[in-house]
Amino acid sequence: MLQNLTGWHALVILAIILLVFGSAKLPALARSVGQSVRILKDETHEAVTDRRAS
Question: b/e per residue, 11-39, with b = 16+ CB within 10 A?
């Protein structure tokens, strides 16, 4: 599905995000997405470690 995503598509998506959220809220949005990804990584790593230990 994402194989056909080009640089122009990414620019359009970024422009839409900028219009929707505004430039003032983008750093907070990026920070919260980063924290969510970090939490997801930690939880999946913990689940894999627990599965291997059993």
Answer: eeeeeeeeeeeeeeeeeeeeeeeeeeeee
pTM: predicted TM-score of the whole model, two decimal places: 0.57
The pLDDT value recorded for residue 2 is: 66
Cβ contact 18:26 at 8 Å:
yes
Rounded Cα gap, residues 2 and 53, in angstroms = 36
Residue 30 CA to residue 37 CA, distance in Å, equals: 11
Q: pLDDT tens digits for 16-52?
A: 988 988 888 888 988 999 999 999 999 999 888 888 8
User: How far is it, in rounded angstroms, from Cα 32 to Cα 7?
Assistant: 24
CA distance 8 to 35: 27
